[in-house]
Write a structure and sequence with these properties.
The chain has 89 residues and is α+β, with helices and mostly antiparallel strands. It has a single domain, classed as Trna Endonuclease, Chain: A, domain 1. Helix content is 33%, strand content 36%. A five-stranded mixed sheet has the order 4-3-2-1-5, sandwiched between helices. The chain contains three helices and five strands; from the N terminus they run ββααββαβ.
């Protein structure tokens, strides 16, 4: 699996914002929870999923406090320090 992740630090807590396709956010809650757990383990930091739809609307999913912080503070995903990642299948 390949993707993009941005590590953000807020009030001495580092967390990972992981870019996902829009279909992930419209999929089952159990799948989103599974992804958050997997990315949290992989990156060693709490993970928040982020998608952007055709109207450039952002959606976040993960730990409520972190997802809300990102939603309220990141208006443009290009503000985040993105990097590519590859995970073994």
């Amino acid at each position: 699996m390949r993707g993009r992740v941005a590590f953000v630090e807020e009030q001495h807590l580092e967390f990972a914002v992981v870019s996902v396709q829009e279909y992930v956010m419209t999929g089952p809650m159990s799948h989103k929870n599974e992804l958050v757990r997997a990315f949290t383990r992989e990156f060693g930091a709490p993970a928040v999923l982020m998608s952007q739809d055709a109207q450039d609307e952002l959606e976040f999913f993960g730990r409520v406090d972190l997802a809300q912080w990102v939603a309220n503070n990141i208006l443009d995903p290009s503000q985040l320090p993105w990097r590519e990642f590859t995970l073994a299948a």
